[in-house]
Amino acid sequence: MMVEPSYTKKNLTYCNLIIDWTDKEVWDYIKENQLECPVLYDEGYDRIGCIMCCMEGTKKKKRDAERYPRYAKQWLKMAEWLFENHKMPGKYKNPQHYYDCYINRRILDEGKEGNLFGD
What we know:
Elements: E1 2-5, E2 13-16, H1 23-32, H2 58-67, H3 69-84, H4 95-103, E3 106-109, E4 112-115
Helix pairs in contact: 2-3, 3-4
């Protein structure tokens, strides 16, 4: 267990009770106590809470975009807004190109595509 003070509220302390648990320990606890879980875990998700997360790989981002098309559309709309307001780096051709690079974990370096995470 990890205990830490709040950095914004003087009289508040956080107790992270399961921070040191392994995935197996978490799932064992859930099964032993017959707790309900979101069906997304049954569908192959190993983490939930962030759609098209930058920490996920291409396959999972594409899965999220397919499952949540309105979210993907809003993401692209945000990229369009950034382009219209000249807040996007010049190395991306257009909002769709930026979106595709994000989904495929690519960055552009001096006109050449490279893997965002070096893997």
